[in-house]
Amino acid sequence: MTSLAGNAALTQNHFELFSLPVFFDVDLHQLSANFRALQQSVHPDRFANASAQEKRLSVQRAAQINEAHQVLKSPQRRARYILELQGVVFDDQSNPVMDPMFLMQQMELREALADVKSKSDPESELDKILVSLKIAKKDILDKLAEQLNTPATADLDKASQLMHELQFLDKLQSESEIIEEELMDSL
Amino acid sequence: MALIQISEPGQSTKPHERKLAVGIDLGTTNSLVATVRSGQTTTLANENGEHLLPSVVYYAKDKTRLVGSEAKQYKITDPLNTISSVKRYMGRSLEDIKAKESPLHYDFIQTNSTVPRIKTQAGEVSAIEVSAEILSVLKKRAELSLGDELSGVVITVPAYFDDAQRQATKDAGRLAGLNVLRLINEPTAAAVAYGLDKASDGVIAVYDLGGGTFDISILRVTQGVFEVLATAGDSALGGDDFDYVIASWIQQQLELGDDIDKSLRNQIIHAACQAKQTLTTERLASINIASTTLELSREQLNNLIDPLIKKTLMPCRRALRDAQVELEEIKAVVMVGGSTRILRVRDKVGEYFDQPPMVDINPDTVVAIGAAIQADVLVGNKADSDLLLLDVVPLSLGLETMGNLVEKIIPRNTTIPATRAQDFTTYKDGQTAMSIHVVQGERELVPDCRSLGRFSLKGIPPLVAGSARIRVTFEVDADGLLHVSAREETTGIESGIEVKPSYGLTDSEIEKMLLDSMEHADEDIAARMLHEQQVEADRVLEALAAALDDDGDMLSAEERQSIDEAAGNLAKLKTGNDDRAIKQAMQALDRVAEVFVSRRMDSNIRKAMAGHNVDEFNA
Question: CA of B407 to nearest chain A CA: how many angstroms apart?
């Protein structure tokens, strides 16, 4: 009976591994409860006295569970993952047609970011930008949720477009973080 | 019916007994060892009743070494042979140290190895060896106090320690003859000691300002699971720096200039440290140096140290953001490390987190206590414990790509253990080797990050350019240490990886150090190797017996037989004196048990998820 089990964990998708339905608005409470239960059973700390073989396997499984957890926990990575499960292939190099309104907003944020360092209180200026980014992201994620709560009938083109917009915002965010690091270093 | 177990003389592991495990806080200023005894976690004292061991090693002319308070007294009379704050040099190159220390506190020598050495009258020593001296004293103290050999230890490191610093710490443990079960992060250890005490769930912040390092960790505690959400810090900022700014102020007041001898400099630093301590209770401290008396007020001190305290608040902000936690969600701010005794630090941290920080725990011992609790669980003394620490990678791991740019492979604050695979291809026809440069840090350019190592992949099958697919797997284990492996996917050939660490010691360097540290090297090494293999074999057999007891029914009769045979062979060889044969028998057992191990792991996963079916969500 048990020999049929094979490497069940390795062939499951992230949702299956966590016994959750493929659904964008994931039950975060359940996700983290299941995450803890899974780690309790496979984490290397449970195998500190085991054979080398078990230790290796435990590290691999625990890492897989961590990875799945991080994908499902992050709305953005979860959205991308659901799209991938639907067969959408992302090419980070491609340049899709973007909504002009969205692009305008991007330009404004970008200019504000470029000016941050010359401001008298750069930290609070940076904070303002980060807040705007957060709001913009929330807006896109809400639109994504509409599509991806029913993956089978989602408008995949629309969802992909939203993902590209998110990527723009992410890029801005990481640039903001680099500026933040530089501000920290200059202290 | 319980059978009486008879153990052979000389064997220390008896399955029915509690195993001896300790937690060690290897600090910049002081080190400590703690253990769990009859349900109580306590730090262990030396014969004079002292718990704190000053992290100072004195190298005498006759090659004897003094550690702790005895060594500390040579700090002023013989500064070059009295090594203190050695933690600052762990995993660091000479250039790193030069950038941080001016003038250098010791006579450093650049060697062929990447690890710099300090010249003392008893010979040259590396930071790893100095740390191993401190660990050895704590090991002896624990064994004397507990009455037997230690089964395993947990050593704490600053959360913000990078791979090189962690590796150096683990190497020091190995050099001291310790079985290092795990390296755990200091703030996480503190959270364990604090959390188990207060036993409540929620998000907490641990602000850990030690002698030479600063960490901030944000954790979510849920029913014994300590999940680190984010960590940030500065691995070269601590109470020592407070002393240095006060010392500089003293030098200025006395118009001494920068070029003073090491002995006077040490006297000034010592006086600065005392003034700092005095000002935690008094409003005014007097400083006597070179027959002059100076006065330092608490307000003056605050002005001197405020920039340093501010430097700790930026990482707090970053950790909160990375954790995606709002300030209001923080239920408690736990203060750890001797430097949090400074009132100004408490005030500023309280102001930042908008709540009075918790200062009712002893900031000196809490880390060792937490480590001891974790060691007790890891060694297997508490089979039904829910305690689980889920920590993170403090700094992003990346690869060098074209144009000196860093491509991040494992971003900071990824939960460990973590693995990521990255595919590479060849750019020339018939190319059989390539080199990969791994770095750690947040910056975009390679020179701004720490170089961890260059990995040469050899033995790639000669193919047309671009058709080989080399999958390189990066794995960060539960100690936070990086391992790299590679394989060519189209042919399945495992590439021979040669790892050349940028920092840290190679295995052969450690072997050599072990040899050097023993007087009757050959016999001792042989005896030690044999003993290590025997202990390991006992452990493996014991674990296997327990696993077979629980899940023996997962095996077919044939499978069971081959495992029993391999185990029987190991049990027989274990009593002999051929350490290699024992090792080989363990490897053979590992191979036949592979399928069993894998089934058990998957069964664990299924059991953990039993009753959590998809159906219940649709209902």
Answer: 13
